[in-house]
Amino acid sequence: MDNLVFVILPPLLKGAAVTLQVMLQAGLLAFIISVVTGLLREISNPLVRFPIAFYVEFFRGTSAFVQIYWAYFVLPLLGVKLSAIECGVIVLALNVGAYGSEVIRGALKAIPRGQREACIALNLPDWVIFIRILLPQAMIRIIIPFSNLLIDLLKGTSLLSVITVTELAFAGRQTVSAQGDPLTIFGVVLLIYLILAAPIAWGAKKLDERVSRKLAVGMVS
Fold first, then answer.
1. Residue 96 to residue 53: CA distance in whole angstroms
2. Tens of pLDDT along 45-57?
3. What residues make up the domain containing 175?
């Protein structure tokens, strides 16, 4: 048992490194997409809102597995060639970004309407209202929801095995094929996923508590 663990750990940790790389890159891109699309959905111009709404509903309403498969195997037929890692990062970012945009949108709508009306009364430009007034408050409200999306993204990296990315889950399957003992190997895989996800949940909780305390102190003072 001990010898088996030492044999299986190197390939699993290598797969975990790929999983972490994809999660961090896709997570950063997804955050940017979430903020941009969340703000754009607040614009009244239908030429802006309808394409953004279509993007959001498309990625929320279709399978991430099929999206990844289509992007990797069909886009080259249209002249767009991406590496497996690039394809996975982009598709997962677009997928999570669609959900994240709704998180941003909900956070913006949770801000009391009186603030917007006051900004309009002061004749502030729309970009100032959203970027300087509303968005900072929305960022406080999305800490926990967006951390949940990051954990989902971490687990979603396992879908990249369909395009031959040797992330953690795929590394586990390869190790089972080579060593046998799926009970032990996939038990270790589950443990590694938990170790990777725990800091995200813990960090988001602590950040949310810290921000909430500062806001409470600010309101009292």
1. 15
2. 888 888 999 999 9
3. 2-220
